[in-house]
Amino acid sequence: MKHITFYFDFISPYAYLAFEQLPEALKGLSYSVSYRPVLFAAMLKHHGQLGPAEIAPKRDWTYRQVLWHAHSKGIDMKMPASHPFNPLPLLRLASACGTPEDPSSPNRYVCETMFRHVWQGGTEAADAQRLAALTAQLAPQHTLNEDEAKAQLKKNTDEAIAHDVFGVPAMEVDGKIFWGFDALPMLREYLQGNTWFEGEGWNGVSQVAVGISRKA
Predict the structure, then answer these.
(1) What letter does residue 126 receive in the DSSP assignment?
(2) Overall domain count for the chain
(3) Is 197 exposed, middle or buried (0-12, 13-18, 19+ CB in 10 A)?
(4) Burial level of 35, CB count in 10 A (0-12/13-18/19+)?
(5) Is 3 helix (H, G, I), strand (E, B) or coil?
(6) What is the number of other CB atoms lying within 10 angstroms of the CB of residue 72?
(7) Which of 6, 39, 123, 162 has its CA 20 to 30 A from that of 104?
(8) Cis (ω within 30 of 0) for the bond into 169?
(9) What pLDDT score was predicted for residue 100?
(10) End-to-end distance of the chain based on CA atoms, in angstroms?
(11) Which residues constitute the domain of residue 82?
(12) Residue 84 scores a pLDDT above 70
């Protein structure tokens, strides 16, 4: 049985879509999953990139596309009242809810509750009152205190970057990174044993020379 590490940040609508769609996309396959909260902004900073919501025309397209994906897949989704927002309180809350067996990974119930807090209802994801109610709801799940949760989130993010995770959602299995909601069909094919993933299509791309490099 293959094990998948699912890296996510609640700020990402694609991470929400991938989270909701994962069971359907991998239906009938044998696998296990660890859900790993990470700070997407730290990845962007590490790689010197802007997020999709920081580029005005791309922001509008991103929101249209994710809402279309949700509509086409039958996923309940509504944009929060403002986006982007500061996801740190949510990520630290998720990090405080790691399982006793794996403190780095909250269970699916915690992740589902928190993703839907953000991406259903159309309210402010970072509203203090809503966050307090969410914290109270998840309190029985807590295994780490606030300082430990902060440290765990940083550790998760640093380890993800060290494993070449550059964005969210990212699904890692056998050292291979599958990035994005649209990578779910690829992930399924890999788990089914498609031999393409042993050949040039997967392994040869790192040998392609950089023809030109744009400097800032």
Answers:
(1) T
(2) 1
(3) middle
(4) buried
(5) strand
(6) 8
(7) 123
(8) yes
(9) 84
(10) 45
(11) 2-207
(12) yes
